[in-house]
Amino acid sequence: MKYEFEGTVEFRENENSIAVPFNVWEVCEKIGDAPIRVCFDDVCFTCNLLPKGQGYYDIPVDDSILSKVELGKKYLISIEIVGNDVEVSENSPYSIENPIRKVDSVDLVTQPWDGLCGQACIAMIAGTTLDEASDIMKCREWQANMGKMIGTLEYLGIRHAEKIVYTLGKEVTLPHCCIIMEKMGRYSHYLVGFDGKYYDPNLGILKEFDMTQIIGYLEIL
């Protein structure tokens, strides 16, 4: 899985680096050492992320790379964590050729209490109940994250984009169907965008949404 965002090379704490604008623990299910492959413009390199604490990291930029970039210039940056591919159960009865369903409609699924928004999004996309989605994901309240949701989509045979796009509050035209990450404290709140409407496990079906609150999205194909 690739993660795409706009970033700049900055000089901080005696080291040139690029800030990763999302919580790596939450999104990638990766704690500790995190080797990544980074690409922007014609520059690609592999390095280890620098931990800043609580799941946030910087990308170090050494002198050999620095000579090819401009400090402070915005680049469209793509990163991929090495050796952290989504694991799909071999016992899945589904596949891309035989998905759990074709996502041509969405019915709202609400969460009875906080901490189940990720499971509710999977239920809406897969056409299951909240309990069924939780069982498939094998996670309880506050345990769902993008890593688990991507793994579940793979298990269910539901096609998705190969990258998560981080808009970070910018105006954006969302795809026909997507899982949206909304800014909410330290972690994200998840909802489904479908055909110009927003299916929020907390608030119901919304016709409008404040784009400044969107961290990013994963397109469902």
Structure description:
With 221 residues, the protein is of the alpha+beta class. It has two domains: 2-81, Elongation Factor Tu (Ef-tu), domain 3, CATH 2.40.30.100; 117-219, Cathepsin B, Chain A, CATH 3.90.70. It has five helices and 14 strands. It has helices at 24-28, 63-66, 117-126, 130-137, 146-156, and strands at residues 2-8, 10-12, 15-19, 35-40, 43-48, 50-53, 56-60, 74-81, 163-166, 177-184, 187-194, 197-200, 204-206, 214-219. The chain has a ten-stranded mixed sheet with strand order 5-4-8-1-9-14-10-11-12-13, with helices on one face. The protein has a four-stranded antiparallel sheet with strand order 2-3-7-6, with no helix packed on it. β12 (197-200) and β13 (204-206) form a beta hairpin. The model has no long low-confidence stretch (mean pLDDT 89).
- Total individual domains: 2
Spatial sequence of strands, sheet with the most strands: 5-4-8-1-9-14-10-11-12-13
Q: Biggest sheet, open or closed, and with what strands and sense?
A: 10 strands, mixed
Shape: globular
Low-confidence stretches: none
Measured between the Cα atoms of the first and last residue, the distance is: 15 Å
* CATH architecture classification of the largest domain: Alpha-Beta Complex
State the helical fraction: 10-25%
Task: Sketch the topology as an H/E string, one letter per element.
Answer: EEEHEEEEHEHHHEEEEEE
Number of strands: 14
